[in-house]
């Protein structure tokens, strides 16, 4: 199996696990507040995160090098996680995913003021078309918009902003810092609000929350492995497979059937996102914000690849020490200057 095929397969498995993770959120959302679900899923993820933290060999402290950017990223993670969990609770799965898939479009927009990247006309047109797809899904004026729709949009915006911030500071910050601060932020904020919404949890539901944490952690590891194995242009579009999982899970467990407008709008959004990814893969400059970020919304309960993990590894040229014999120019081959060949032929004698 080629490296790109392996990366695509790992990504498909990862996003299938994420979709299963979202199904459990929707099941629990029928009985509990998103605040309680986020709090316990983050709390139960700390033991798993500790394993990753112990493997971090990078020197340094837990103090972020970019504290204000890290604070903003933590806030976006808190808002994104809460809004996404709430949207999954009150809206059909396929409709939530269709809105969240607008993240690559928003990443393209936000990369201009934050990263200073140049977005050319064709990608701007793709962004406009994709946003029209969002309007097709929402159908303002013909359907009653709920708080769930606003939550899904806010989650897409927050997730996009968080991805751009990671793109901006990820090369300077330690993985420990990038993962720990959103988790701590969710733990503190959701824990402070838990007293107002808490409902007693039976053992079965505690087990489901633990499964949510495990699924998110494993899927995060698989996404990182996928980006390491394959090219970003191959791995990134695999996120759109979640709409297939969402449709199947919705029909199987929640009696949800996507209507024509949702299918059409999702198709427009996905096509726009794929076009942006393909355009970025052909770009010769650094303006590739979507390929270098991940559009999966962040809740602070799973790992995410950093910019350095999204870049294909480049082979470094072999360095020859100055003291090595092959590094010095010596006469050979009839006195022409150059390096001594690895294996010299014996000199012929006159008697041969």
TrEMBL record:
Membrane topology value: Multi-pass membrane protein
Cellular component aspect of the GO annotation: membrane
Pfam families in the cross-refs: EamA (PF00892)
Primary localisation category: membrane
Domain EamA residues, every copy: 6-138, 147-276
Family that this chain belongs to: Belongs to the drug/metabolite transporter (DMT) superfamily. 10 TMS drug/metabolite exporter (DME) (TC 2.A.7.3) family.
Name this polypeptide is given: Permease of the drug/metabolite transporter (DMT) superfamily
Organism: Loktanella atrilutea
């Amino acid at each position: 199996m080629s490296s790109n095929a392996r990366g695509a397969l790992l990504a498909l498995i990862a996003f299938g696990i994420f979709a299963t993770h979202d199904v459990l959120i929707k099941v629990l959302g029928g009985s509990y507040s998103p605040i309680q679900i986020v709090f316990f899923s983050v709390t139960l993820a700390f033991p798993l995160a500790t394993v990753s933290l112990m493997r971090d060999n990078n020197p340094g402290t837990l103090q972020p090098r970019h504290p204000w950017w890290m604070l903003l990223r933590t806030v976006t993670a808190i808002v994104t996680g809460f809004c996404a969990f709430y949207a999954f609770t009150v809206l059909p799965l396929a409709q939530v995913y269709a809105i969240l898939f607008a993240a690559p479009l928003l990443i393209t927009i936000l990369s201009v003021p934050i990263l200073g990247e140049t977005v050319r006309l064709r990608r701007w047109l793709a962004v406009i078309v994709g946003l029209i797809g969002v309007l097709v899904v929402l159908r303002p004026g013909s359907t009653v918009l709920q708080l769930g729709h606003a939550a899904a949009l806010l989650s897409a915006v927050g997730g996009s902003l968080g991805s751009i911030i990671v793109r901006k500071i990820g090369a300077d910050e330690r993985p420990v810092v990038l993962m720990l601060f959103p988790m701590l932020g969710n733990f503190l904020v959701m824990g402070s609000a838990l007293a107002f919404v808490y409902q007693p949890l039976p053992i079965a539901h505690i087990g489901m929350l633990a499964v949510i944490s495990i699924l998110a952690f494993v899927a995060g590891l698989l996404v990182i492995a996928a980006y390491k194995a394959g090219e970003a242009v191959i791995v990134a579009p695999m996120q759109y497979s979640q709409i297939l999982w969402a449709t199947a899970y919705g029909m199987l467990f929640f009696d949800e059937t996507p209507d024509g407008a949702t299918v059409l709008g999702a198709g427009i959004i996905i096509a726009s996102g794929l076009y942006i990814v393909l355009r970025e893969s052909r770009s010769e400059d650094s303006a590739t914000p979507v390929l270098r970020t991940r559009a999966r919304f962040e809740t602070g309960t799973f790992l995410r690849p950093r910019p350095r993990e999204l870049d294909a590894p480049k082979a470094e040229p072999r360095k020859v020490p100055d003291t090595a014999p092959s590094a010095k120019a010596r006469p050979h081959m009839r006195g022409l200057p150059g390096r001594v060949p690895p294996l010299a032929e014996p000199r012929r004698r006159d008697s041969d």
